[in-house]
Task: inverse folding
């Protein structure tokens, strides 16, 4: 057969999607709006003080530069694609430049005793917002700090009012930066959830298709073949194994773990089911830590291989998974020949038998206990008890 | 046999399977009254022919076999539903059993197992596989850890019996191990199922009353 069945573990990739929009786009728009509003405020302040400046012409030139720069940045930041770092640094430089111009525009008294606002006034907060939206908490606070330091430098002194400005600038940068980071993260989470949803839908579609076609035929072939006996029964057994394996694949949930490192143990056990090994699980997820899930699935696999090797031809096995709330119980029972009394310890003494030492050791590493009941001709029954994910976490 | 043969109806959306099962049962002396390929037809035909046992697949395309099971067991007192479905359809199997099905058999079961299961179902016994026992155990534990205080609980003995069923022991082996009669083991198993179904009906009725659905039906 050349066809290929896609296994459930593989991720479904949807049709090509356009580049995702920056989730911080509303924040960019706000930063642009802030700059436009503060520009008019700054222009108003210069108009009010026009007769008092040392160099009013230069004041108006500065306002002109600010107008042009407001227009340029508005266009640039509203574009959907990349906002280059060099441009944002240039933005910062120009903003600081307009502040520095105030040393020539304002008189010495205006700069110091009268505390007249600098030419750009609050217009420069917009660049702090830009830094925050672009680079998060670090960018926001750094830009706030740079603007605040220029504020000190231009004025040439330090006092309560200027320090208050610094606290506000750095604070605004930090808060906005956090908001930008948070909105990007939640957009990422949403996108991830959507991908998982798409993958699940695709799985379900596949499962339905396989159920409606291949599985029905395999089941029927298996059943009829067994009834006919002889060579047909052998073919039936092969069909039966494929049927069980395929069913386990399509019915098991994807092997995924949650963000906090917990994993549903059920799908990892369900894929171990065959026509001789039955796996019984609850209908609701059984959460254990991710390493515990891997380890327990491995142990069950080992135990089932042991059944294959030692329990005798045609031995069946049953795996039962139970969630008792504070602990998870795994039972593995087979109806094979059983282990003669003393064989496990004898083998342990010889140091070659895997069961006793490795299984016991692995279970106790998980903080669990394992018990074994066996007698000649009555099969073996393992019971593994490990703390569930909540208990395991509480213990740490 | 002096009694009339057990009448059955086979519900499955896949013709190969449906006809195969119907033929197997007819060959073994069952009265196959009807077959149906979807849930709506299943309910309609069951009302008309009133079979003793409905063999119900759960994967029926648009409407699930769970609702059909609920309607059939709710309306037809003499008709029992045996779920014959793929292994692994956990939630559906559990829902169907809560909705009133008497048991669950995997499709890979042999013809002999199927025949035995149909006989048991028509006699009013539950058909419990290891897989179903694991689901029912899990459901009781889920309810016990939930907020409802009136949720049904298992007795210690019932839990013990169900665990052994889930580990693949037959009723006889369980009876031997626990030193009980075969009948007592059967009764324990039945009772776990009945409590679950009763609770499910109460829940549905409560939901209907709370949402005013009971008035719309007059």
Result:
């Amino acid at each position: 057969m050349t066809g290929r069945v896609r296994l459930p573990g593989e991720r479904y990739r949807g049709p090509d999607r356009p580049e995702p929009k920056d989730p911080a786009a509303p924040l960019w728009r706000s930063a642009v709006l802030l700059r436009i509003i503060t520009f008019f405020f700054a222009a108003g302040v210069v108009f009010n003080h026009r007769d008092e400046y040392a160099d009013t012409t230069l004041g108006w030139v500065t306002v002109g530069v600010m107008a042009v720069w407001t227009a340029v940045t508005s266009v640039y930041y509203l574009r959907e694609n990349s906002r280059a770092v060099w441009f944002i640094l240039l933005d910062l430089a120009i903003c600081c430049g307009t502040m520095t111009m105030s040393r020539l525009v304002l008189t010495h008294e205006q700069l110091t005793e009268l505390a007249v606002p600098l030419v750009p006034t609050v217009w420069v907060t917009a660049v702090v917002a830009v830094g925050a939206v672009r680079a998060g908490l670090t960018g926001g606070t750094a830009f706030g700090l740079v603007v605040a330091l220029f504020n000190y430098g231009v004025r040439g002194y330090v006092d309560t009012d200027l320090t208050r400005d610094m606290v506000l600038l750095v604070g605004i940068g930090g808060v906005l930066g956090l908001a930008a980071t948070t909105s990007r993260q939640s957009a990422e989470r949403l996108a991830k959830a959507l991908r998982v949803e798409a993958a699940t839908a695709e799985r379900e579609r596949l499962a339905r298709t396989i159920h409606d076609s291949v599985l029905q035929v395999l089941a029927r072939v298996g059943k009829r073949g067994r009834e006919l006996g002889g060579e047909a029964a052998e073919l039936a057994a092969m069909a039966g194994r494929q049927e069980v394996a395929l069913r386990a694949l399509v019915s098991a949930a994807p092997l995924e773990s949650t963000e906090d490192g917990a994993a549903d143990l059920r799908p990892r056990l369900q894929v171990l089911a065959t026509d001789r090994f039955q796996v019984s699980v609850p209908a609701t997820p059984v959460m254990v830590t991710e390493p515990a899930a891997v380890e327990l699935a491995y142990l069950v696999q080992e135990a089932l291989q042991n059944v294959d090797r030692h329990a005798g031809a045609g031995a069946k096995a049953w795996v039962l998974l139970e969630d008792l709330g504070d602990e998870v119980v795994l039972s593995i029972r087979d109806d094979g020949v059983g282990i003669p009394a003393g064989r496990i310890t004898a083998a342990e003494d010889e140091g070659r038998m895997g069961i006793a030492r490795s299984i016991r050791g692995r279970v106790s590493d998980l903080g669990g206990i394992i018990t074994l009941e066996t007698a000649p001709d009555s099969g073996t029954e393992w019971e593994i008890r490990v703390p569930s994910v909540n208990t395991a976490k509480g213990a740490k | 046999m002096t009694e009339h043969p057990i009448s059955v109806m086979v519900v499955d959306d896949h013709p190969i399977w449906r006809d195969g099962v119907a033929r197997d049962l007819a060959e073994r002396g069952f009265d196959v009254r009807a077959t149906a390929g979807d849930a709506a037809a299943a309910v309609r035909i069951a009302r008309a022919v009133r079979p003793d046992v409905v063999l119900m697949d759960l994967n029926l395309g648009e409407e699930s076999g769970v609702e059909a099971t609920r309607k059939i067991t709710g309306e037809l007192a003499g008709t029992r539903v045996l779920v014959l479905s793929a292994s692994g359809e956990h939630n559906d199997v559990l829902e169907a059993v809560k909705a009133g099905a008497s048991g669950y058999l995997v499709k890979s079961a042999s013809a002999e197992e199927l025949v035995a299961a149909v006989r048991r179902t028509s006699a009013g016994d539950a058909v419990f596989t290891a897989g179903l026992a694991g689901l029912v155990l899990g459901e009781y534990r889920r309810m016990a850890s939930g907020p409802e205080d009136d949720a049904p609980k298992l007795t210690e003995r019932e839990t013990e019996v169900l665990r052994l069923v889930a580990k693949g022991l037959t009723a006889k082996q369980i009876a031997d191990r626990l030193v009980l009669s075969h009948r007592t083991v059967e009764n324990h198993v039945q009772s776990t199922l009945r409590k679950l179904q009763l609770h499910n009906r109460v829940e549905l009725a409560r939901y209907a009353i709370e949402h005013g659905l009971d008035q719309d039906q007059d």
Summary: Residues 311 and 336 of chain A are 4 Å apart (CA to CA). Chain A touches chain B at residues 208, 211-212, 215-217, 219-220, 222-224, 226-227, 240, 243-244, 247-248, 250-252, 270, 273, 275, 278-284, 316-318, 320-325, 331, 333, 335, 381 (CB under 8 Å). Chain A has two domains: 25-190, 255-396.
